[in-house]
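can u pls check wat happens w/ manganese (II) ion
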Amino acid sequence: MNNRLKQISDYIEQNNLDAVIITVPRHVYYLTGFASDPHERFLGLILPRGEEPFLLVPALDAEAAAQASSVQRIHTHSDTDSAYEVLRGLLPASLGSIGIETEHWTVSRFEELKSCIGASRFSSVDELLRDMRVIKSEDEIGLMKDAVTLVEEVLRRGLQKVAVGVTEIELVAELEFQMKKLGAQSPSFSTIVLTGPASALPHGVPGTRKISRGDLLLFDLGVYLNGYASDITRTFAVGEVSEEQRRIYNAVLAGNEAAIQAVRPDVTCASVDAAARNRIEAGGYGTYFNHRLGHGLGIDVHEYPSVHGRNEALLKAGMTFTIEPGVYVPGVGGVRIEDDVLVTAGGVEVLTSFPKQLTVLGD
Ligand code: MN
Ligand code: MN
């Protein structure tokens, strides 16, 4: 049993549970090494108290699971089975308390599980998993660095296609083509390229807008590689830079750098957010920084912790998250500069290394 499974097994003992059922596919990967997307089919890692853990997978995934999973007790269900009936047959006859990921279950699936397995109490293991995941191991940090290296190369290649008249969506296609070509599993979220006034929409959708001289051009992209996500934003100027664009850019950059400098163990998430916000307010753009500073990053592209002004949770060595202040001025454009950082015993390591000084792309 690996160390992560051991932690869950200990939790079962301490909390007097009869079993824990893990159904978030990324958690199955995290705990066993078996990555899959079961779509609507049931995928579960089951840890019955005092017994060997087992996987219950769709029959078509049995071979893949046997190859990848450190848990070698593997049961299957077919498309004509009720997965919950199969599960019932694999669990002890009498069940009291079961731990599940409450954030993952839909009401209808939960009702089906409940009526099938006949346990009387269900409790949440969400916090347990969250606390395990939030501190990254050396191996995980290595995988995240690989995902960062890859996406930075994608951005370098994508920038070569920037020219006046090229559309946002053409650049998205080029970036996602390069992701695949360089071996990424997938984008870690829908790639964002926004130009001109559209760059002022933090969640804008790339379309057929053409790049014009004088635009701010914002790229926000990430990849999954070996199950770990990267996430980077850089903003450029096209052809020329106005005074206001430069002021906005410098305010965001100062905020980004101040936040990075504030990162170290035992400071609050809120204090890191404040470090960026204070600098951007001092630059006169506080009201245009209308979202949190960042989010945890790992096997999910958005995970714990949420780095915002009311999160008093303390940073710990081994946490990884984004620092992504932005200023969005309607009609003018937006700037966001996003880095991925690791909290170290001595302070911070910035995983992203793409240059941050304002770059004017040729016309
Ligand atoms: Mn991003
Ligand atoms: Mn992000």
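DSSP finds ten helices and 20 strands in the chain.
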